[in-house]
Design goal:
heterodimer; A: alpha+beta; Alpha-Beta Plaits; two-stranded antiparallel sheet; B: 389 residues; alpha/beta; Aspartate Aminotransferase, domain 1; Aspartate Aminotransferase, domain 2; 3-stranded antiparallel β-sheet; 12 strands
């Protein structure tokens, strides 16, 4: 039924929203066989299209302390060492959640998740800034998260429709 | 005192849905699968355009037939999607939902005694609207064995020399049936031969799951005898905005516009501005919602098969129409019992015409989670019915 790309697209669209869906249900929703779904997912895992099945947690609703910092990083790429090498030196730190190469006024966006602001500042001063290629950083702390991964956090949906309509 | 009421109004039966609604409303924490409108919110960019129009003070009447930009966008849309070409200035009327367009079309075209063919099961308003014109409604009872399509033979069998109009409600509420091009071509041939006009209610045109919807107006010889009715409620999840439209030959649209002008003045201005945005930038929203409905449709069909509930596969709208004949209950009895015992509300097929007896309308304008819970309960219910037999 599907072109190969079509079924991949359809599977990704569903599991991006709900990675816990079981294979049988997924195959019913997409009108294809369970085997085809299983094989397609396995292929996409091998090809690093699917890189993991993580859970989106709203830590703000727990007693756990979490601080998210977004750090703009400016670097000077050196001969023989491009952006990728510098990025690698940054993303290998386990406290780093995400690293993006950016267009515009700075080079990398580094996202950190830590328990306290102090540990963020320690990371910047002791680990990030000493990397030779880094010229400067600007750190922004997240005050409140409204929406992540296409999901509005803390949203209570109620069905406003009348119960029976023609 | 004299009787203040009109005989024709007294003769109109109240909607069967209303009766059921009253029962359901009494029931606390019932899960409803009885809704005839999308569960999605109107996409934000469309809502924002409505808000923006209010901020700019666009709070006045528009011209009777509708905003020029909107009529132009409607024409662009119909051309883009269905190869239908209309003159925005003369062949389009923006109405208060598709419902007003149905009413206005009938009032503009029916003389007392003219026969109007109404295939059933179908939406509840065709019959009373015909009655209000003093026309004669002629019901064509569609059959499950034909997947609730209108067959050329059924059409022929119901034509007399008084027949003037055929109402064509596909994709269909409540059955979910669609009509493919081949069958439309045969129906069209008959309409041309017998000089019959068509009011084609295509409000569910974007919710078609087996290739794109085909409008009968696309078929040779039909555009000049067809009023195409469509709107924003189902495709853009805009039911509460009350906005629809009718397109057709100038001589009919101009008379419909006259009725609309005196009865309504113009469709809501805020809604019209929002609708311009919907047509300009809403294609991706429509596609995403359509895909979600299609997944739910497959999910329901599969669940029915597994629990042994007979249902033909519908390819349109957001309804399935399973048969409950084997349980030995009427549609009303089944729906009431299901509501009392499992707190699930579905609409008895008879709400959409007598030939809906033995069927239920189940809407899948609900989240998958909702549908899952509801289906578990329906399965438990029919197991019990089978054991009791």
């Amino acid at each position: 039924m599907f072109e190969i790309n079509e079924i991949r697209k359809a599977i990704l669209a569903v599991i991006e929203k709900n990675s816990r869906i079981d294979l049988k249900e997924l195959s019913v929703l997409l009108g294809t066989s369970e085997i085809e779904v299983a094989n397609t997912i396995a292929d996409m895992e091998k090809e690093n299209i699917i890189c993991g099945y993580h859970t989106m947690i709203n830590w703000e609703n727990t007693t756990e302390e979490k601080v998210t910092a977004m750090i703009e990083v400016m670097v000077t790429p050196q001969r023989g060492i491009g952006f990728d090498k510098i990025a690698e030196r940054i993303y290998n730190f386990s406290e780093v959640q995400s690293v993006y190469l950016m267009s515009g006024g700075f080079d990398f966006m580094v996202i950190l998740e830590e328990k306290t602001m102090k540990s963020v500042s320690q990371f910047i001063s002791e680990k990030l800034s000493p990397i030779e290629a880094i010229r400067g950083t600007a750190t922004h702390f997240v005050l409140k998260k409204y929406k992540e991964h296409g999901t509005v956090l803390n949203e209570q949906k109620t069905d406003e429709r009348m119960l029976v309509t023609p | 005192m004299r009787n203040p009421l009109s005989d024709v109004v007294i003769d109109i039966k109240p909607s069967g849905i209303r009766k059921f609604f009253d029962i359901v409303s009494e029931m606390k924490d019932a899960i409803s699968l009885g809704v005839g409108e999308p569960d999605f919110d109107t996409p934000w960019h469309i809502r924002e355009e409505g808000i923006y129009s209010l901020e700019r003070g666009r709070t006045f009447y528009t011209s009777n037939a509708g905003l020029k930009e909107l009529k132009q966008e409607i024409c662009n849309y119909l051309d883009r999607r269905f190869n239908l070409k209309y003159d925005y200035n003369k062949e389009v009327l923006v109405t208060v939902g598709g419902s007003e367009a149905i009413d206005a079309a009938l009032r503009a075209m029916v003389n007392p005694g003219d026969e109007v063919l109404i295939p059933q099961p179908s939406y509840v308003s065709y019959l009373p609207c015909v009655q209000l014109t003093y026309g004669k409604p002629v019901i064509i009872e569609l059959k499950e064995e034909n997947d609730f399509k209108l067959t050329p033979q059924e059409l022929l069998d119901n034509i007399t020399d008084k027949t003037k109009i055929l109402i064509l409600p596909f994709p269909n509420n409540p059955t979910g049936a669609i009509l493919e091009r081949e069958i439309l071509e045969e129906l069209a041939k008959i309409c041309v031969e017998k000089d019959i006009f068509v009011i084609s209610d295509e409000i569910y045109s974007e919710l078609s799951y087996n290739g794109r919807h085909v409008s009968i107006a696309e078929i040779d010889g039909m555009k000049e005898r067809t009023i195409v009715i469509n709107g924003f409620s189902k495709s853009y999840a805009m039911t509460g905005w009350r906005l629809g439209y009718a397109c057709g030959p100038e001589n009919i649209i101009s008379q419909m516009t006259k009725i609309h002008q005196f009865a309504i003045m113009c469709a809501p201005t805020t809604s019209q501005y929002a609708a311009v945005e919907a047509l300009r930038n809403g294609d991706a929203d429509v596609e995403a919602m359509c895909q979600a409905y299609n997944q739910r449709r497959r999910f329901l069909m599969n669940a029915f098969k597994e629990m042994g509930l007979d249902c033909f596969e519908p390819f349109g709208a957001f309804y399935v129409f399973p048969s409950i004949k084997k349980f030995g209950l009427t549609s009303d009895e089944f729906a009431n019992k299901l509501l009392q015992e499992e707190k699930i509300a579905v609409v008895p097929g008879t709400a959409f015409g007598d030939c809906g007896e033995g069927f239920l309308r189940i809407s899948y304008a609900y989240s998958l989670e909702n549908l899952k819970t509801a289906l578990e309960r329906i399965e438990r219910f029919i197991k019990r019915l089978e054991n009791d037999k």
